[in-house]
Prior knowledge:
The protein is mainly α and 196 residues long. It has 2 domains: 3-140, no CATH class; 145-196, no CATH class. The protein has 7 helices and no strands. α1 packs across α4 (83-105).
Amino acid sequence: MTRLTKMSLLTVLSMGMIVTTNAMAVEKPAKGDRKARLMEIADTNGDGKISKEEREAAKAKIKEMRENKRKEIDTNGDGVISDEEKAAAKAKHEEIMRKRMEKQADTNGDGVLSDEEKAAMEAKIAQRKAEMLKKFDTDGDGKISDEERKAARDAHKAKMEERKKAIDTDGDGKISPEEIKAARQARKDKKQSTEE
């Protein structure tokens, strides 16, 4: 196993443990596609807003998708995910993530990672790992424990709820396209004022 692959896998494992709730989580769409995918799932009437009813329906659909993913991982269909099945699912996820990372690192798009591209990727991986450890390794032991991982997920959930409340300026429980536009403009304005 090359040094690059080892580092890639280490980073993928670290990131995966923090970001996902478990190995059976629904595979995330690309960053730019996530909002569109969530709107596609949730906004069933196509009005550009997600009502409370649509949100509940979307939660049920996501739960169903996770259950389907669980069934996909449970290859022998016995209703129990064995260590071997977990390992196979983890390996599959790592391979997908490795390919994504290599594609992103291939800045000239020639399908081959040059030494410079590999070095840049390794530096980025090391930086991300250091940032995650600094942020989530509260006891300073150099590892992210289950408790620290749970605390990170809980903090992320709370932050998302705060953002949602801040965007929903009329307090109707729905985030309209106008509210999204206003929130984006506010972020843009804030960024410009800090840069000046």
